[in-house]
Amino acid sequence: MATLEEVTPKVEEKIQSLGFELFEMRFFRAGSRSILRVVIDKADGVKIADCAFISNELSALLDELNFADNRAYNLEVSSPGIDRPLKTEKDYRRIKGHDVHVHCTTGIEGKKTLIGEVVECENGILTITTEKKTVQIPLSDIYSGKEELRFK
């Protein structure tokens, strides 16, 4: 039986070879069902047809790898969505010039929640400009971040 930890590198390699990025992969129980949730991304976005294609490709690979000892599970393939969580430097650099909403563990000047425009994200430090000033936040201090979406 192949575990999640064992199949993740092979799944990531397969997804990359098809022109996508593995954003997240989790195996969990939901009531009486087991679910393998695979979240994919690519620069120009993910379409429903992309999810179906990746699902078919991964299904064959996972069977070949004997994932979960061939016990029944549901494979779900999706995109991170418009309100995707921001986790890495790459995520923050992708939205440079856009507003971000971050929650910090220790906070900046007593504030644990900040909203500001992403200036840059390099070497583990996110730089944003809030209404009052420019601040630098170590990514290790951010426990959640999302792009602040604005609709006209």
Could you walk me through the main structural features you see in this protein, from its secondary elements to its overall organization?
The protein has a five-stranded antiparallel β-sheet with strand order 7-6-5-4-8. The chain has a three-stranded mixed β-sheet with strand order 1-2-3. It has two domains: 4-78, RimP-like superfamily, N-terminal (GMP Synthetase, Chain A, domain 3, 2-Layer Sandwich), CATH 3.30.300; 89-147, Ribosome maturation factor RimP, C-terminal domain (SH3 type barrels, Roll), CATH 2.30.30.180. The chain is an alpha+beta fold and 152 residues long. Strand 5 (111-122) and strand 6 form a beta hairpin. Helix 1 (4-17) packs across helix 2. 24% of the residues lie in helices and 41% in strands.
Helix-strand layout with pairing:
Layout: H1 4-17, E1 21-30, E2 33-41, H2 48-64, E3 74-78, H3 89-94, E4 99-108, E5 111-122, E6 125-129, E7 134-138, E8 142-147
Parallel strand pairs: 2-3
Antiparallel strand pairs: 1-2, 4-5, 4-8, 5-6, 6-7
Helix pairs in contact: 1-2
